[in-house]
Amino acid sequence: MKHLSRIYISLIFLLLYAPIIVMVIFSFNSSESLSVFEGFSLKNYQEVFRNSEVIGAFKNTLILAVATAAISGILGTAAAVGISRMRARYIRRSVLSVTNIPMMNPDIVTGVSLMLLFVSAGTIIGLETTLSFWTLLIAHVTFSLPYVILSVLPKIKQMDKHLTEAAMDLGCTPLSAFFKVELPCIMPGVVSGMLMAFTLSLDDFLISYFVTGSGFQTLPIYIYSAVKRGVRPSLYAANTIIVLAVLVLLILINFVGDKDDKPKARKEK
């Protein structure tokens, strides 16, 4: 049974990662062929960085991801603190269930729902251009918030509540006690949540496709538009850059979590 389970797991990983590995390999192909690897070259990456449209889309993606991470980090931390301080258990569970809806909803449902909301609101207000960078930012914050909340809540539960009480006994106001005592204790969860929000915003396509306007284009949307005109090897390079960026961020998220858990594991021993 052990051998069968290992074979099964290996096949699953092969099916999951084989397309990504092939894409990364062919991003270094020296020829224009999409099926025959003729030699190692960086010309596809040079073509990507010489393309002004790609650079513009990449800058837009970074600006959107940073703004999403910052806003989601602030709102998610505030929401997690508020949820943790709710005394009624059924209210807390109800709020958590509502919070988790954006995570459980299919992306296409979230994207279409937000698009209809923005278009309706823009029509009522009388805006000429309804969809823009701001609607895209609101949408990204909406689906990123639950991940920040779920990253911060466990850190709040692990924190010693007597520390905040001791700070207020020593003269701190509730607000200063939060910033001086509580926030440093939960900071690993805040950082992990912000990195997760950054990662989700960086590679999102489906929701962005429905809520973005014509004047703002992210890298995933640019790649989708370019593929409709024909697949070029330079697109492999652009996709590889996104994959590597997401991989680095996921490693950082795990590193932050492991670094915070090591001292606790030592104390338990």
Account of the protein in words:
The protein has 269 residues and is an all-alpha fold. It is 81% helix and 0% strand. The chain is built from twelve helices and no strands. α3 packs antiparallel against α9 and α3 crosses α11. It is globular and about 70 Å long.
Multimeric state: single chain
Spatial separation of the terminal alpha carbons: 34 Å
| Integer average pLDDT | 84
Low-confidence stretches: none
- Helix/sheet category: mainly alpha
| Rg, nearest Å | 23 Å
Helix content: over 70%
Morphology: globular
Q: Could you give a short description of this structure?
A:
By secondary structure, the protein is mainly α. Helices cover 81% and strands 0% of the residues.
Attribute tags:
12 helices, 0% strand, 81% helix, mainly alpha, 269 residues
